[in-house]
Amino acid sequence: xxxxxxxxxxxxxxxxxxxxxxxxxxxxxxxxxxxxxxxxxxxxxxxxxxxxxxxxxxxxxxxxxxxxxxxxxxxxxxxxxxxxxxxxxxxxxxxxxxxxxxxxxxxxxxxxxxxxxxxxxxxxxxxxxxxxxxxxxxxxxxxxxxxxxxxxxxxxxxxxxxxxxxxxxxxxxxxxxxx
Length: 179
What we know:
With 179 residues, the protein is an alpha+beta fold. The chain is built from 4 helices and 10 strands, in the order E-H-E-H-H-E-H-E-E-E-E-E-E-E. The model has no long low-confidence stretch (mean pLDDT 91).
């Protein structure tokens, strides 16, 4: 566990699949990480297909379709109050219950100011430095809403709490190996 974390789930960051398009499969990777945590192994390619996407990568409105198709139990963030404090509280409560959170973030400075989000991550912990995320780029980072460069929760609004998985035919239980 990261020494700066008040609490963190044991979910390692995974890279995006080599066959992903130039835009990447960040949403697909975050879903894969969460499903593996619940013991179900499914490829990023199959996750992409499950979203019935019209794009090379999953968009925010296609992620719930992929989750339902894959048998993932989830809840969507619907804030009563806006702002990072309310968002971080909702995410922290999910983490405390053992549920990772698929979240949308901005990458600052942004190339797409009109987009609500630029990238998907899996939130796996929280602490005084903010929220601990799996970037889908092979590392974890602490993220909040105050930075000017890099991954940011500024204007955070998109979060999906992953509560478990009812495996479907295109998924399989992950095999544990004893070493």
